[in-house]
Amino acid sequence: MVLYPILIAFLLYFSSIPIAFALFASALIYFIFGNTGSPVDLVLQRFITSTASFPLLAVPFFIMAGSIMNYSGISSRLMKMADVLTGHMKGGLAQVNVVLSTLMGGISGSANADAAMQSKILVPEMEKRGYGKAFSAAITAASSAISPVIPPGINLIIYALIAQVSVGQIFLAGYIPGFIMCICLMFTVSLISKKRDYKPSRDKRASFKEIVLQLRESIWALFLPFGIILGLRFGVFTPTEGGAMAVLFCTLIGFFVYKELKISHFKEILKDTILGTSTVVLIIVSASIFGYYMTWERIPQNVSRFLLDITNNKYLMLLFINIIFLVIGMFLEGGAALIILAPLFVPVVVGLGVDPVHFGLISIVNIMIGGITPPFGSMMFTTCSITGVSVIEFVKEVIPFIIALLVALLIVTYLPWVVLFLPNLVY
């Protein structure tokens, strides 16, 4: 009976109830009917106080910065930069798609926002150039999995709050795994493009002069993620203040450098920010109540004991946890899966000698793969709904990209120095 709130949460979720409401309702039912020893007022108080987190303020700031990027012309310049670098390759626009997601990772930090933007901008252009619509949707969803891994990804901030690790360290740890995912996807695109004879988007490789000119135009956008990291490292600002600085920086660039941002755009920017923030925060506070129930029943401790009884070999444990994350990620939204599962597994892996920063990147790469897999992958549904591709067609095309991302996951899991090199170098 201790586990019935978990069953209720899944039943509600599979009944098309949003995950935030499913988590909150199942926990509330437990505290009203199952555990009368804890006053309901205390549960509701915890629901409210869980929002009173200063680091959590970074979430709306970075979401707002990403939205401003789209209206200020910075996103379009990043796409041109990606085209200059990779447009001459086989499957040029598909390669641009991957590189653009990697560059956008340092700006929006949201997989769904990245998938939605590229579904509207790049997929129609890819269709015109002879790429299959399902292939275009598949690479758009797969490449969007890179965005939350590269700072300032929202999931990086959430994990840092859960595991009580340095936001600066977890930010730095995201760069190399993000680039590994990019390389794996680009290699897969190249193989498929050669087989299907997808043409490059440029007739020839860009000259050194073209690259320098485009770099000069895009340098302001490319500077943003590195500026945030440097500011955090040298104590110029906190992660929350870094989000506010990102908003200020993007606004100034949009108004005074590119001159494409208008006052009239801020109505839509605020709407995007409110919608994005409310979704994330509602899941976080609902998962906080659900976590309160699990802590009350000592479920994390019991799970730890159970897993350690199976094996105390950290490599086997990481493989086992990866499989659990992959399966759960197919059904739950990435942020919710991270919030529910990370508190269960962090004590286990830390006890076996795994660095919590390393495990954070394993977890985040894992749940991003879940976002493009059926039956409930969020990026899968985002791209399919915007492009009009059926889920069946999408799944057929996305399988090679899932395999590529699984290879990246194995590298991140079993080569910890890849993840920890930059944090150890800087800190």
Automatic annotation (TrEMBL):
Sequence ranges assigned to domain TRAP C4-dicarboxylate transport system permease DctM subunit in this UniProt record: 7-418
Lipid bilayer topology: Multi-pass membrane protein
GO molecular function, one term: transmembrane transporter activity
Record GO cellular component, one term: plasma membrane
Pfam families given in the database record: DctM
Main location: membrane
Localisation per UniProt entry: Cell inner membrane
Bilayer-spanning residue ranges: 6-33, 54-74, 134-162, 168-192, 213-236, 242-261, 273-295, 315-332, 344-369, 402-422
Organism superkingdom: Bacteria
Keyword tags: Cell inner membrane, Cell membrane, Membrane, Transmembrane, Transmembrane helix
Protein name as annotated: TRAP transporter, DctM subunit
